[in-house]
């Protein structure tokens, strides 16, 4: 999870490969109208995001019910969005974060570092969200609640170190 430009897709692909599992990019699930809004510099509302999150939830639930591991790159900026995604675990009880099969990793960094990355990707035509929406994502980000058990990794580390750190954190949380 994290704001646009944090490296979610890059790290997610690498993590999926390391875990030998499917990788899903939440951006691929956005409706055309959501993509159009973002490309025009219009921030999505909760009403825009809800059907998107519910689609992601359904895709995750299907995989979890089949006993699969999957890596999803998704902004998941607000706690309410993460709750929808946690709901893909059929055994999840709200607030029981440690036993939930859905885990979150925040790729965190300051606005200057992430803005530079996002600007580079946009100039290469690799992303549909303009730099002008980055601040709205930082404004929405809710990730300071330690009880929610969000793993945090700095975006300034190399991708390999980030993936290794995530694997260690998740393994340690599953085998206390």
From TrEMBL:
Keywords: ATP-binding, Kinase, Nucleotide-binding, Transferase. Its EC number is 2.7.1.12. This is Gluconokinase. Belongs to the gluconokinase GntK/GntV family. Pfam families: SKI. GO terms for molecular function: ATP binding; gluconokinase activity. Pathway: Carbohydrate acid metabolism; D-gluconate degradation. GO terms for biological process: carbohydrate metabolic process. It catalyses: D-gluconate + ATP = 6-phospho-D-gluconate + ADP + H(+). GO terms for cellular component: cytoplasm. InterPro entries: P-loop_NTPase (IPR027417), Shikimate/glucono_kinase (IPR031322), Therm_gnt_kin (IPR006001). The keyword ATP-binding applies. It is an enzyme of class 2 (transferase). The keyword Nucleotide-binding applies.
